[in-house]
Recover the amino acids of this structure.
C-alpha cells in the first residue's frame, strides 16, 4: 500500500486558523455576533428541566383489588399463573409468599397489603407479573392483566396522597385515569423486598 506524503505546511496553516479562532484572532461581523447572542438568549430562556412532551412509557397494566397498576415493560420478564404459593415465616405482611418458577424461588409481593388496599382471598385465577433486572427477580400479584399501554411521561402526576411513607417512592406517578405506574427498577433494587425460601434477607 502506497503511503501519501504529509503536507506539513497545510497542517500548520490549519492549526494557525484554529488557534486564531480560539484566541479571538478571527473577528466576527456584527451580524454574526448578533446571531450568536440571539441563539444563546433563546437557549437561556428555555426553563430547565422542561419535560419532553413526546416522551412516552410502554407499560403493562394489571388490576388488583379494584385498582389499576402498571409497570414498564422493560422490567417485565413474563406473566404466569399463581400456583403453589408457599408462605415464608419472618417476612413482612406484604410478602404473599414464594413460588417455584421453573426451579427458581420467586418472592411474590401483594400490593394490596403494601399499599393498604382492601384484601381479598387468592385464587388460581390470580396472575403473577414477574419483574427482572440483572440477577434480581420479583413477582407482583395481580387479579387480571389488562394489557400493554402507552403513557405520556408528561401525564404522570405525583403519587397517591394516601402514601406518606417510604412506599411512595415506589410509584413513578399516577395518570388522570388513576393508573398507578410503579417504578420497577426501585422495586427490584430494594433490599427489603428480597426474599428466598428461608425468609427475608
Amino acid at each position: 500500500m502506497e503511503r501519501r506524503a504529509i503536507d506539513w505546511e497545510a497542517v500548520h496553516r490549519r492549526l494557525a486558523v484554529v488557534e486564531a479562532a480560539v484566541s479571538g484572532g478571527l473577528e466576527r461581523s456584527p451580524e454574526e455576533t448578533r446571531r450568536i447572542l440571539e441563539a444563546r438568549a433563546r437557549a437561556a430562556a428555555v426553563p430547565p428541566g422542561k419535560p419532553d412532551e413526546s416522551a412516552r412509557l410502554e407499560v403493562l397494566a394489571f388490576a388488583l383489588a379494584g385498582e389499576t397498576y402498571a409497570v414498564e415493560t422493560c422490567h417485565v420478564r413474563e406473566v404466569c399463573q399463581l400456583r403453589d404459593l408457599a408462605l415464608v415465616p419472618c417476612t413482612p405482611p406484604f410478602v404473599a409468599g414464594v413460588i417455584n418458577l421453573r426451579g427458581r424461588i420467586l418472592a411474590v409481593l401483594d400490593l394490596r397489603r403494601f399499599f393498604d388496599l382492601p384484601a381479598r382471598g387468592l385464587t388460581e385465577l390470580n396472575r403473577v407479573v414477574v419483574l427482572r433486572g440483572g440477577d434480581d427477580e420479583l413477582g407482583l400479584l395481580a387479579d387480571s392483566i389488562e394489557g400493554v399501554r402507552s403513557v405520556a411521561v408528561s401525564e404522570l402526576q405525583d403519587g397517591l396522597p394516601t402514601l406518606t411513607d417510604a412506599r411512595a417512592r415506589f410509584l413513578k406517578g399516577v395518570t388522570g385515569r388513576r393508573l398507578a405506574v410503579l417504578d420497577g427498577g426501585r422495586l427490584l433494587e430494594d433490599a427489603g423486598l428480597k426474599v428466598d425460601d428461608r425468609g427475608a434477607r
About this structure: The two ends are 64 Å apart (CA to CA). The first strand starts at residue 56 and ends at 64.
